Amino acid sequence: MHEALRDPKVTATLDRLHAAAKGDRWVFLRAAPAGLWSLLTGGSMLDGILPYLKDAYIPISPEQGELLYLTARLVDARTIVEFGTSFGVSALYLGAAARANGGRFFGSEREPNKIAAARAHLAEAGLADVAEVREGDAMRTFADLPAPIDLVLLDGWKDLYLPMLRLLLPKLRRGTAVFADNIFTFPRELASYVAFVRDPTNGFESTTIPLGHGLEYSVRVR
């Protein structure tokens, strides 16, 4: 465990939420038939399972969380942004890094129950003073984020990964780290995003890290 993650409040909150998130397996088992039917009828897996996800944690793994935390510490990230905060598990790792760096964390979520829960979890972990979860469409609520942005986690609706990156792009500095989750789970939906960050003319160098459901790790190089 790393310095800022050793805080007893942060540790206790993370342990409780990771344990609670194990119940997601039953959510996805119930959703699987709808997802497969959507694929068979010309839609996407995400279209089919979407109605089942409102109460699912869908968190990053502890290993992913530690990677996000350490990367934020490595680049001395002062402005950290997450698209798709859900119940706030990843927000705890990123909020802890923001506090250690003397910076701030900005999250975004649309589901009212998840917004309330994420804010409560950040407060429980003692991170409310450095973390903000914005309510509503992130394409609007993130329009006025302060620059430069030092680290980004994309973990919301998959068809918005690329539009979100384009929105934030003018505020990313050279060396900004961008993580995109669920690369293995939604390869078709995220194909255009992966193609963008792997095209050197767009100013990134990128690779897929085989942690959790696949993290695309991109660094802005110019």
According to DSSP, the number of beta strands is 7
Please trace the helix and strand order, writing H or E for each element: HHHHEHEHEHEHEHEE
Low-confidence stretches: none
Radius of gyration over alpha carbons?
Answer: 17 Å
Strand fraction equals 15-25%
Strand order of the largest sheet: 3-2-1-4-5-7-6
Identify the quaternary structure here. single chain
What's the CATH class label? Alpha Beta
CATH architecture assignment: 3-Layer(aba) Sandwich
Overview of the structural elements:
By secondary structure, the chain is an alpha/beta fold. It has one domain: 3-Layer(aba) Sandwich (Rossmann fold). Helices cover 43% and strands 20% of the residues. It contains 9 helices and 7 strands, in the order ααααβαβαβαβαβαββ. The protein has helices spanning 8-21, 24-40, 45-49, 62-74, 89-101, 112-124, 138-141, 161-168, 191-198; strands at 79-83, 104-109, 131-135, 149-154, 172-181, 204-209, 215-220. Strands 3-2-1-4-5-7-6 form a 7-stranded mixed beta sheet, with helices on both faces. Helix 5 (89-101) links the parallel strand 1 and strand 2. The mean pLDDT is 90.
Quick structural summary:
The chain has helices spanning 8-21, 24-40, 45-49, 62-74, 89-101, 112-124, 138-141, 161-168, 191-198, and strands at residues 79-83, 104-109, 131-135, 149-154, 172-181, 204-209, 215-220. With 222 residues, it is of the alpha/beta class.
Helix-strand layout with pairing:
Blueprint: H1 8-21, H2 24-40, H3 45-49, H4 62-74, E1 79-83, H5 89-101, E2 104-109, H6 112-124, E3 131-135, H7 138-141, E4 149-154, H8 161-168, E5 172-181, H9 191-198, E6 204-209, E7 215-220
Parallel strand pairs: 1-2, 1-4, 2-3, 4-5
Antiparallel strand pairs: 5-7, 6-7
Helix pairs in contact: 1-5, 4-5
